[in-house]
Amino acid sequence: MIGSVFYFSISPEEERKVRANDREYNEKFQYANNCIMTSKYNIITFLPVNLFEQFQEVANTYFLFLLILQLIPQISSLSWFTTIVPLVLVLSITAVKDATDDYFRHKSDNQVNNRQSQVLINGTLQNEKWMNVRVGDIIRLENNQFVAADLLLLSSSEPHGLCYIETAELDGETNMKVRQSLPVTSELGDPNSLAQFDGEVICEPPNNKLDRFCGTLYWRENKYGLSNQNMLLRGCVLRNTESCYGLVIFAGPDTKLMQNSGRTKFKRTSIDRLMNTLVLWIFGFLVCMGVILAIGNAVWEKEVGFLFQSYLPWDPPVDNFLFSAFLAFWSYVIILNTVVPISLYVSVEVIRLGHSYFINWDRRMFCQRRNTPAEARTTTLNEELGQVEYIFSDKTGTLTQNIMTFNKCSINGHAYGEWEMSRAQRLDFSFNPLADRDFCFYDQNLLDSVKLGEPAVHEFFRLLSLCHTVMSEEKSEGELMYKAQSPDEGALVTAARNFGFVFRSRTPSTVTVQELGRSVTYALLAILDFNNIRKRMSVIVRNPEGKIRLYCKGADTLLFERLHPCNHDLMNVTSDHLNEYAADGLRTLVLAYRDLSEQQWEDWAERRRSAERAADYREDRLAAAYEEIEQDMMLLGATAIEDKLQEGVPETIAILSLANIKIWVLTGDKQETAVNIGYSCKMLTDDMSEVFIINGHTVQRVREELSGEQGGWHPQQEEKPQQGSPPAPALPSLLDSISGEYALVISGHSLAHALEADMEREFLDTACACKAVICCRVTPLQKALVVELVKKHKKAVTLAIGDGANDVSMIKTAHIGVGISGQEGIQAVLASDYSFSQFRFLQRLLLVHGRWSYLRMCRFLCYFFYKNFAFTMVHFWFGFFCGFSAQTVYDQYFITLYNIVYTSLPVLAMGIFDQDVPEQRSLEYPKLYEPGQLNLLFNKREFFICIAQGIYTSVVLFCVPYGVLSQATRNDGIPLADYQTFAVTVATSLVIVVSVQIALDTGYWTAINHFFVWGSLGAYFTILFAMHSNILFSIFPNQFHFFGSAQNTLIQPVVWLTIALATVVCIVPVLAFRFLKLDLKPQLSDTVGLSVF
Amino acid sequence: MKSQQAANRPDNTAFTQQRLPAWQPMLSAHFVIPGFLLIGMAFIGIGVALYITSQNIQVLEKDYTGTGQYTACSECADMQTIPCICNVTFSLTTLFTGPVFLYYGLSNYYQNYRKYQVSRDDVQLWGDVTKSPGDACAPYQYIDNKPIAPCGSIANSMFNDTFSLYQIINGTMKLVPLDGKGIAWWTDYNIKFRNPSAQGSLQDAFNGTMKPVNWSKPAYELNPSDMNDNGFLNQDFLVWMRTAALPDFQKLYRRITSGDYALGLPPGDYVLQIEYNYAVKDFGRKKVVFSNVTWMGGKNEFLGVAYIVVGSLCLVMSVVMLVVYAKYKFADENA
């Protein structure tokens, strides 16, 4: 959003040209300077801009339109303030909120813009505020300073032009990353030589991709390719580096940090959508009523009003009854406008905000260990938490702790790490002074093999100590700290460390390893990095003897394809081991190496360089180059890492399934691992009739498997579709009847086919018929696609929960995204709507908070529509008795205050605090969650019931006073049928009836509810008497026409008898209906509630 | 570290943890069924009392619109002769218990029409005739650029039939004294309406204003017999200005409280002499009503009947609920 605001005037930038130390040249392009502005308003623009924004809301515009109507004297049936007071109130509540938000943005902007940085100007370093830094400036950074803009690293105080950065603010990863300047510029160490630097960078336009950069440096007639490796992005912090110099490439709003800070797509709940539809219907209803009353007015004016002219002449513009009817229509639109509740949206926001705070405040969702409370990052989705039907969960870090321990390994066909619990003895690594004391391993054989010097074992650990991207930090001699991007890598490097292959330090071109006490420095020739598609990483190193070797570790499926054929036997053995490990729920990696000759390396290095220099498709070309070299590898073995389940996961899953929530696990792990985790967290059970496994590689195969699963219930087997016909009844009911006993496991490559347009339906039907679904080996995109599929076809509320960057797309796609703040940075949390640190909090979020939110919101909406209809429709009935003249029944002050003072707070209190059953019960009886999923508490039917009740109430409120007062007189003979008495009687009855109704609807009377309910009634009578008092009248005799009415009316017993009658007639049917419903058709929540008390 | 942990940990209060002590009412049978029973009985009791009281109230209505050929005041209905006086006769066989109230009633008369209802100026009626009357009074705002006092449609259309009641005793007509004091709201008479104040007479105070178009006399001459009952404080005017909520309404005209008639109208023949000035026959009707009141006011059958009906329904509902409840209760216990 920020980006778009800044660019609308200029044609989009196609490439960026920056010349160092040449402000004049750079100014030609009018690049944004380094001043950021995340705030939306300033003091002058706040009012117009904020109002403009607010009036983009249909409801607000509607009320503005009403206000304009009210200013036309011929139409105005109500004073202008009846609309403007609520409107101003609503607008100011929102405005205050916006202003507060913006104030804090201003504050942080100011703070950031005024940070100091050292800029090289005319050959000397000068202190400048961040906001004065320009594109093309060279700035100097010192240790622990924030990077001021996106910089091209030119040189650093460290050797080789290296520097280290921490990117926590950017992507949440706390490990250090290394950046390196181009060799040609790394020599420019002092301000003087830097001032002479006049290179020109041509690069891509500003974008939001944090992990790539593509550009070229032209300097002294030479071209140098630039990549993300040379960039220091704004938001990073310089670490372990004394100082460095950088050239500003992107500044201010163009920086990747700012480009990423755009708001994500605004999510709306189904209740929101329903509410909007209903408000439209109410508009329609309003117009209908207006038309009916206008027709009535036409008839009346023709039949009666025409003759009544001797006492009430038509206004000059009215010359016939049709025109009068036209005006009456608009007049009625004005007085009936209260059916469209102006305060609805604001009240809904307030309630949701309250619910969000309850989530933030919940101590039972606070994780002691991580010191993180749950956080509702979006405050607009709460009630949808009570309607979730599908949960899509990541596995690693979500169901599991993502704390990896090196558990087993298979080296050269020999399995290590089997041990019996009873005889378990922790290995003693005291021979190794650099060992990590927290590391545990129990198989003595492995240590013996290391000590005996088995070459395969040595090579295995050598690989583990070389092939990774871990950074080491050695605070003092022998105290090594590893900083790993993924916990798996950390676990593997630590394992190698304890077994005597200690990774000690790295430079961009070397890795130093302490091999069984002997320090060996390998020349690091290339890193073929990891990504989700390659699912492997390799390094190419040259050992001190000069031999070049490629070490590779990665997923078994991919690596086995790339092994030398001679590994066939070993591969089979290892594969068996892998299957065992996976069946134990361990995460596996396969390790392999390849010897390269000098020639091979040279050739390949050349191909890689050309790929790197390529202007377009650079990444594809690089991937292809990597692919080329990772061939004919020799298998070393496999590792198995354990990732323990988080606390309470099986219980949570069990409870959520009892609540009829279907849980799909989408994981990148291999099938066996996933299935095993499925068992250990009780998603899959031995009671299940069958676990279908689909892992065909072709469209045909997958289709067969899918239809096979659907068609018949064949004995446990994989990939063998059954030709048999399905046993009796029709398919859908069959699918329904069997649900709960079957599970589906599908792998990524099958999923790719299953998600194609012609098969997705079939896949979805099968998957939804199963109680548990596990998708393994899926890519982040596939995760999102699966969620999208369910969202599209099932009309069900989906929730995605995950912790890593690979879950972000799924979290953004699902109706509700939950981020686990765990080991893998905070990207998932940043993209999420709710975040907490333990999977088990999910049950509380859904079953307690979600359920309550939904219940409260539904009760709130029902009552809200009811009270407005009860209030407004009285005008409609009165229309038939006042010549359809748009005369209101109530005093205009009553109309102004009804929605904002007399009836707003009790229902808000109910909407925020109500509880039907105590929280323990919602966890004990997960079935209580079902009404939300089935959308039973507020839907179109419920809406019509509320409306009907409101209309019934309005009829009673009109007819009872009509019947009584039309004939009644006071005991001093004065008739009670005057307009003001009637108005006060109806208004008082209305306030009492709706108060009794909210009292009935409130299930949980806290002190606050009492205060609001009684307070509202008290406020009504206080304000009534105040408005009708002679003090106000004597000040504004023309405004307070109702002077004396309250005193004269409410002293009459007949009036109170009328109010009592109206109240009983309104409430008794509701009471009887609810009582009978409780007895005849009790809901689970009723019985659970009863059993408590 | 400890303190930092405490900082992030949410407060353990009843409010934040949603554990506020609360009363959770349930619709239990022990509460609802007796409740219905109680309401039912109370309502029937009140209803019967109201009904009986209402039955004891005597009401006598006489329509005098005069639209039919031989109906009362038909001779005046064409509004040709002004003033036209007509008589409505009636006879009482029993004592019409006092105090008796005399009302006039208009039907299909829309005092509650919005334009009509707002067509007044409360500032003017509060005694300020010097200010120009509010626009709401149009078209009865000015005559010849002089403000009308009282302005507006309500005042202009003030009911101006007058009634005098005679008892016929042995062929002679004995005037029944009618009391026109205190027929308007106390607050209206004492606070909401004020006569303009000026040195000298009330007439001087109204100097520079015009009388409403339909009025035959200016405001300060509304009641020639009582100097204090004039101007904006004229009781009939106050009664008229308190507009009716519904198109069929009655307004209090006089009380019969004094003289020989303090205890009521004794049996006999009566003549109500009407000065017929007010034209309604194009759209509605007019009538006179004699009525007496009890503690609960005038005759009001609706209230009593409604109470009895609602009370009975509550009783029926309580029985139904009891049956349903018992049935399900026992069904549960058997199961």
Key terms:
heterodimer, A: 1093 residues, alpha+beta, Calcium-transporting ATPase, cytoplasmic domain N, 9-stranded antiparallel sheet, 40 helices, 47% helix, disordered N terminus, B: 335 residues, 4-stranded antiparallel sheet, 9 helices, extended, transmembrane helix (chain A), metal-binding (chain A), ATP-binding (chain A)
Could you characterize the architecture of this molecule?
The complex is a heterodimer of chains A (1093) and B (335). With 1093 residues, chain A is of the alpha+beta class. Among the domains of chain A are: 403-644, Calcium-transporting ATPase, cytoplasmic domain N; 848-1091, no CATH class. Chain A is built from 40 helices and 33 strands. In chain A, the strands form six sheets. Chain A has a nine-stranded mixed sheet, with helices on both faces. Chain A has a nine-stranded antiparallel sheet with strand order 17-16-26-25-24-23-22-21-20, sandwiched between helices. A six-stranded antiparallel sheet of chain A has the order 3-2-4-13-5-11. Chain A is elongated and about 120 Å long. The two termini of chain A are 53 Å apart. Chain B is of the alpha+beta class and 335 residues long. Chain B has helices at residues 2-8, 29-55, 114-117, 122-125, 153-156, 186-192, 202-205, 235-241, 301-334; strands at residues 59-63, 84-92, 96-97, 100-107, 142-143, 146-147, 162-169, 172-176, 249-256, 264-265, 268-276, 285-292. Chain B has a four-stranded antiparallel sheet with strand order 1-12-4-9. In chain B, strands 2-11-7-8 form a four-stranded antiparallel sheet, with no helix packed on it. In chain B, strand 7 and strand 8 form a beta hairpin. The longest helix of chain B has 34 residues, at 301-334.
